[in-house]
Amino acid sequence: MIEMDNKQWNEKIKENFNDAAYRYLEYSNIQKFFAEKIVQLIKELNPKKKGQWIDLGSGPGLLADEIEKNFSYQKVSRIDFSKKMLLENKLSSKKIIWDLNNDLPPEINNCSLLTSNFCIHWLNNPEKILKNWFSKLIPGGFLIISYPTKDCFPEWKETCRKIDIEYSGLHFLYSKDLLKDFKPNEIYYSEKFNYLENFEDVYKLFRSLINVGAQSSNSKRKTVRELKEMQKFWPKNYNNTVNLSWEIDIQIIKKS
Known about the structure:
Helix content: 25-40%
CATH superfamily: Vaccinia Virus protein VP39
CATH topology: Rossmann fold
């Protein structure tokens, strides 16, 4: 296994997301699905109009646009480390280029709503970062995050065990680790959702991750031979297609 230091790892992630920026919206079905779920939750929360609304790791503005569509009185600022992703956002939107591995910029404060969809698992120290984000909320403000959990991709892991090759996907987060520094009364909502993707074959499955820039891994790239083995042993549906199962956690943390 090739271990990278954080700087190399962050550069690799940024490069992959920059490369995917122009096609991200076309292929980000799972991100869209959970962006819509988050908006439904925001409607129920009815956050204060007073205070900033910010989307962290906004990419091309998928979630921020969805929020603005449903809350026409509210502008959502977009923060991302990928310049190319930010350029895909609406011209009229407020955009800040920022590496979220660092504390948020000092001008970000007094927020009544912070959202982050499919971002926190790419960051180096998610527990610390989450605490920093939380510190920017006003009393009564909400922080909403969605992210894949450690129980994602059972088919992929099982196939690797079967043919005795290294699982090269990301090792996602445990929610109890991520939320360990929060008091029970601050965790307003927490729910896991299952999401199933279906592909013609394993090659298209892996291509789907590349299409949204999500292929970064600390492992060596699979050889053609290994990919053929994976295609052969990956569990198949009745019509010979393959699945990729996700488990996504959505959490709402409220500042009292």
